[in-house]
Structure to design on (364 residues):
């Protein structure tokens, strides 16, 4: 059962991270960087063991004992709720995980990340009676997903296996108070460590904030930003709703849409909507320099939107146009709830300014 936990300088740890070293710098990668940085003063070996299925199959041929161990567990897990697809995929994908754990058998395990695989990994660790801690990015059974990504026989099976994993952890760290409250309803104790960018990202955000403070945003040159990745179903749906709502509004500001996979919205380009698609980190920073504000139209889910913290630190106000609980009561941080028909009035209000409180770095 999870409990209040303090990491020790006298212990050795193995961090298994879903998004560590990912080249596409979405929110999951930034959270992974944060956790790695928080743990940097401890004796930690970090690895991302989640290989592609192609690499996993090749690796299984070189490590038959690890493959056999993963297969045996997967067969057991099949009778507990993972699907045939989950059985097959995890039998291969577990090889690298097992290989890394074996090579670091003297270290206590820390899991970090999101998605279906970490749920199965938690259950594997319980099966092997290995101690572990977990930093979760979402409560996964509450996140909508496509069936093609489903490793479980049903949502009910996913629910029970995820909760079993949390109950078997030594400690659980969530990214939002909402997540901790939901787990608390299941009598699972957790601690919240809010997102805060790693040093390399924080430096860039502070630079943007300083430049914005020194410059005057011109009405003709600035615009409203809508950012997100279509790989996240709630984000994709929220962005589509925002684009469709914005095209019916009379606004003096153009809407610019950017993020991984957003070129699927290209057919919605118009005189006041500019779909940019995927952009580089450098291009995103350029967009942030002259943005009037960021619009967030996130469907309700768990976790916490990384971009809310990033834009706050960059000195860019945020308008929440959906019923996203985690964005409530944050006016002191320049984050406001708004209906689309209220946006022109809000943007012209004297209360709408970039001088607001910023989020603080949490401690571990």
């Amino acid at each position: 059962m999870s409990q209040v936990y303090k990491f020790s300088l006298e212990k050795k740890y193995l961090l298994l991270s879903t998004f560590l070293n990912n080249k596409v710098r979405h929110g999951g990668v930034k959270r992974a960087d944060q956790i790695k940085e928080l743990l940097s003063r401890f004796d930690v070996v970090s690895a991302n063991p989640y290989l592609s299925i192609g690499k996993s199959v090749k690796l299984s041929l070189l490590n038959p004992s690890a493959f056999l161990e993963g297969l045996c567990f997967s067969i057991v897990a099949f009778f507990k709720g993972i699907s045939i697809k989950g059985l097959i995929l995890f039998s291969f994908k577990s090889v690298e995980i097992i290989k890394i754990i074996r090579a670091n058998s003297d270290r206590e395990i820390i899991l970090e990340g999101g998605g279906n695989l970490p749920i199965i990994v938690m259950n594997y660790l319980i099966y092997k009676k290995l101690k572990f801690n977990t930093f979760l990015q979402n409560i996964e059974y509450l996140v909508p997903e496509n069936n093609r990504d489903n490793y479980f026989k049903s949502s009910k099976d996913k629910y029970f296996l995820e909760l079993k994993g949390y109950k078997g952890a030594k400690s659980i760290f969530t990214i939002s108070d909402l997540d901790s409250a939901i787990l608390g309803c299941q009598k699972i104790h957790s601690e919240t460590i809010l997102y805060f960018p790693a040093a390399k990202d924080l430096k860039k955000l502070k630079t943007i904030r300083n430049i914005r403070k020194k410059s005057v945003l011109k009405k003709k040159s600035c615009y409203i930003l809508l950012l997100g990745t279509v790989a996240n179903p709630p984000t994709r749906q929220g962005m589509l709703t925002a684009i469709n709502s914005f095209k019916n509004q009379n606004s003096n500001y153009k809407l610019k849409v950017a993020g991984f996979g957003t070129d699927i919205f290209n057919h919605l380009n118009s005189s006041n909507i500019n779909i940019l698609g995927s952009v580089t980190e450098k291009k995103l920073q350029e967009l942030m320099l002259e943005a009037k504000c960021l619009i967030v139209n996130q469907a309700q889910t768990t976790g916490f939107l990384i971009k809310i913290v990033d834009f706050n630190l960059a000195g860019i106000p945020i308008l929440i146009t959906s019923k996203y609980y985690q964005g409530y009561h944050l006016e002191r941080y320049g984050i406001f709830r708004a209906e689309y028909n209220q946006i022109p009035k809000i943007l012209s209000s004297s209360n709408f300014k970039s001088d607001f409180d910023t989020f603080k770095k949490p401690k571990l």
Q: What stands out?
A: The chain has a mean pLDDT of 89. Residues 35 and 112 are 8 Å apart (CA to CA).
